[in-house]
Amino acid sequence: MQASVEKIKRSIEPLRQEIVHHKVYGAIKDLEDVKIFMQHHVYAVWDFMSLLKALQNNLTCTSVPWFPVGNADTRFLINEIVVGEESDVDADGIRMSHFELYLNAMKQSGADTRPIETFIASLQTTGNRTIAFEESHTPSSAREFVDFTFKMIESKQSHLQSAIFTFGREDLIPGMFISMVNDLHKQFPNSIDVFKYYLERHIEVDGDHHSHLALNMTAHLCGNDESLWAEAEKVSIESLQKRLQLWDGVYEEILKRRS
């Protein structure tokens, strides 16, 4: 199984490098640019939570009466990730999900949270993503990103969900972006310290411990089936392509603001 993991890593490395070195990071110069970034990226933070809960629903028993579902090791892996993502702590030790923490960071910075909040409210009311996208005026690149994630969720194929969760998600924030946020924090400590905390917490929890757990989960789900590993590789590549498109959308919006 380790050989299959390494094969996927080699296959996606060029795309990962494109993402880590994307021109959007060099274009972010001030607080207004960070706000644009957050207004797009928040959709990826939200659908990451949705993907996580889809995995938990598929791999564990989340209904009553309870019955043992699947492999106990896999149950442990997904449940541990859920605890960390859905009920972490903010800088004051208050329990909240990483999505709620991100929203707090947006509000502190002055970023516009109305689109994502309208999207969620509409989705709760209508159950229809298309309507929710239209009512919230979701950026097209974020819309395509979310649609791909939900295509994987609606497939109900856990190995595909686990693959994009493991190989295509949130460990792609480069050091140069962290450094830029730290510099802005010195200028605007009361506008960006929650976002700074989010990034630091993200690196501490998601980028190390959770990524290791996710790799183990994908290995459990694909096992020794080469066809499952091939499918996992294919959707991992697609997921990273969608991330590139999302960053392209942020970059274009920043250029538009400048012009």
- Low-confidence runs of at least 5 consecutive residues: none
Helix content: over 70%
Compute the average pLDDT. 92
Helix/strand class: mainly alpha
Quick one: biggest sheet?
A: 2 strands, antiparallel
Gross morphology:
globular
Alpha carbon gyration radius = 18 Å
- Distance, first to last CA: 50 Å
By DSSP, the count of extended strands is 2
Question: Secondary-structure element order, as H and E?
Answer: HHHHEEHHHHHHHH
- In DSSP terms (H or I, runs of 4 or more residues), the helix count works out at 12
Describe this structure in words.
Helix content is 80%, strand content 2%. It has helices at residues 2-20, 23-27, 31-59, 72-86, 98-109, 114-126, 129-136, 140-155, 158-167, 175-187, 189-222, 226-258; strands at residues 88-89, 95-96. It has a two-stranded antiparallel ribbon with strand order 1-2. A hairpin with a 5-residue loop joins β1 and β2 (95-96). The N and C termini lie far apart (50 Å). The relative contact order is 0.19. The model has no long low-confidence stretch (mean pLDDT 92).
Give short descriptive properties of this protein.
259 residues; globular; two-stranded antiparallel ribbon; 2 strands; mainly alpha; single chain
How are the SSEs placed, and which strands pair?
Layout: H1 2-20, H2 23-27, H3 31-59, H4 72-86, E1 88-89, E2 95-96, H5 98-109, H6 114-126, H7 129-136, H8 140-155, H9 158-167, H10 175-187, H11 189-222, H12 226-258
